[in-house]
Amino acid sequence: MRPNTFALKQGMLLCTALLLVLLSAGTYAARLPDMGEPVDQTLSPADEAEIGRNFWRQANAALPVLRDPELEEYLQSLGERLVAGARSQSYEFRFFLINDPSINAFAVPGGYIGVNTGLIDAFAEEHLLAGVLAHEIAHVTQRHHARAYEAAGTSGLTTAAAILAAIIVGQNSPEAGSAALATGMAVSQQNQINYTRANEYEADRIGIDILASAGFDPAGMAGAFDILNRRNAISRSGSTLQLEYLQTHPLSSNRVAEARNRAAALRTDGARNSRAYSIFRTRMRVIASANRSALEDAYKRNDPDLTNPATRYALALINEQRGDSKEALALLDETQNTTLSEQLLRARAQYGSGQQAQAAAALRELIALYPNRYSPADTLATLLQGDGNYDEAYQILSAYSQRSSNPSLSVWHELASVEAARGHAGLSHEYLATWYARQNLPDEAARQLELALRQPELSGSEKLRIEARLKQLRANAKRG
Questions:
Q1: What pLDDT does residue 230 have?
Q2: Helices H, strands E: what count in the chain?
Q3: Are 155 and 191 contacting, i.e. CB atoms less than 8 angstroms apart?
Q4: Which residues are 114's β-sheet partners?
Q5: Over pLDDT 70: what percentage of the chain?
């Protein structure tokens, strides 16, 4: 098995960026008053949040983050359900997908949790994925990165920053993580290994409690461990390499046994799977696939009678994406479309088959049923734009952005695109400024506002609003 060259290069890039961020965070921490938990003196919750925001900015530039509103919504919803079962909810968690077939997941300070497509592909049932997510949530709520940073304090700030960066980067690129770790851990290597094992046991125990509290079968974590061990055995046949996940989350037989025993003590009638997860996993497979024809053949071969709704959804999605909307609609008409993704696909297939009025009506009903979900609004707005109806597309997206308590970041970029198509260059730049600002990129946001002010079509009130936003951005930058 060859090392993942892409992951290695990107991992080193992230490592460099994170080292700078962490050294800066350490400087902030040195000025903290003597209060709160001892760990706050080396890495406070505010520092963790800043590290997370900077990581997210770097990840968007360096990693193959899979961007699809329906996939994003499902994963975020599952994550939030688990977070609600955690005792500590002081972090704003963001869950995201990385288009990488290797089996891996990782947590970053501040509540950023990444999951590789390969991990989801390995888990046929929802409670298995929930088990891994619960484990990663526990790493964040128990502040394991901050405690690792504190434990390394005697080796100096640079070493501590290198260790924490290596932990984070290593979760995405074991080769890069190991290289960074070797440079920063010469003094305290054995202590750090022991500390990591203690973190893993604690994340298991708390994660299992989170699973049960969220209504899942708590055996999901032990079940996930079993699958990872089996996959690892196959992976290591004729190779010395472990699965990426196990390189950063050491998995002993004692851990598996303890997880199984704890789950048995908490035995409930918790959920193991859902149709929504099956459709999510299927959609992810199709979108991430580099060879959809081969994937289509595999689905037909494994379920020739098309009795599984996920098979019908997969084949319908593949047909819809190749432009055969009528075949997609025929496949979906033979089953009940109970999940949001199935209903959205059916509406798109209707629209492509010439049933625009029926499709638009169905999508408006879904928007009313799911007012805080971006995917129904995005689907209808995209179809309308395809027909050149930019005014109505703008109304759909603008209404969503105003009613949602936490609108999708994508809506600001889409609104910018729609406004550009409507000939409103100034407002397009203003929406892009919002998009950048919400990604913690104030310099880019300010540049967009400056560009907006150069556009001659702005009204007096629009110009005053944008000038006020630019002034506020600059004032915040000076205070920071």
A1: 85
A2: 24, 3
A3: no
A4: 96, 106
A5: 77
**DSSP code per residue over 302-331:** H-TT--SHHHHHHHHHHHHHTT-HHHHHHH
Characterize the bridge pairing of strands 112-116 and 94-98. parallel
Tell me the two tokens of residue 214.
Answer: 């969220």
Contact in structure between 8 and 173 (CB atoms under 8 Å): yes
On the 0-12 / 13-18 / 19+ scale of CB atoms within 10 A, 281 is buried
Q: Which regions in the chain score pLDDT beneath 50? A: 1-35, 154-161, 163-164, 167-168, 171, 174, 176-193, 195, 240
- What single-letter amino acid sits at 146? A
- Please name the amino acid found at residue 276: A
- 3-state SS of the chain: helix, strand, coil percent to 5? 70, 5, 25
pLDDT of residue 55: 77
Cβ(222)–Cβ(263) below 8 Å: yes
- Using only the alpha carbons of the chain, give its radius of gyration: 24
Residue located via tokens 């592909």? 121
Q: What is the per-residue pLDDT for 294?
A: 97
CA 272 to chain centroid: 22
Would you call 36 helix, strand, or coil by DSSP?
coil
Question: How far from chain centre, in Å, is Cα 266?
Answer: 29
CA atoms within 13 A of residue 261's CA, in its CB half-sphere: 7
* Predicted local distance difference test score (pLDDT) of residue 23: 41
Tally Cβ neighbours within 10 Å of residue 297: 11
Task: State phi, psi for 384 to the nearest 5 degrees.
Answer: -65, -40
Cβ atoms within 10 Å, residue 382: 16
Q: DSSP of 94-132, one letter per residue?
A: EEEEE---S--EEEETTTEEEEEHHHHHH--SHHHHHHH
pLDDT at site 381: 98
Alpha-carbon span 158 to 168, nearest angstrom: 15
Cα separation of 19 and 30, whole Å? 17
Tell me if 278 sits within 8 A of 311, measured CB to CB.
no
Q: Provide the token pair at 16.
A: 């460099």
Which tokens belong to 176? Answer: 């890069």
Do the beta carbons of residue 123 and residue 280 sit within 8 Å?
Answer: no
DSSP 251: -
Determine contact, residues 480/441, Cβ cutoff 8 Å: no
The single-letter code of the amino acid at 279 is: I
Q: How far apart are CA 304 and CA 301, in angstroms?
A: 6
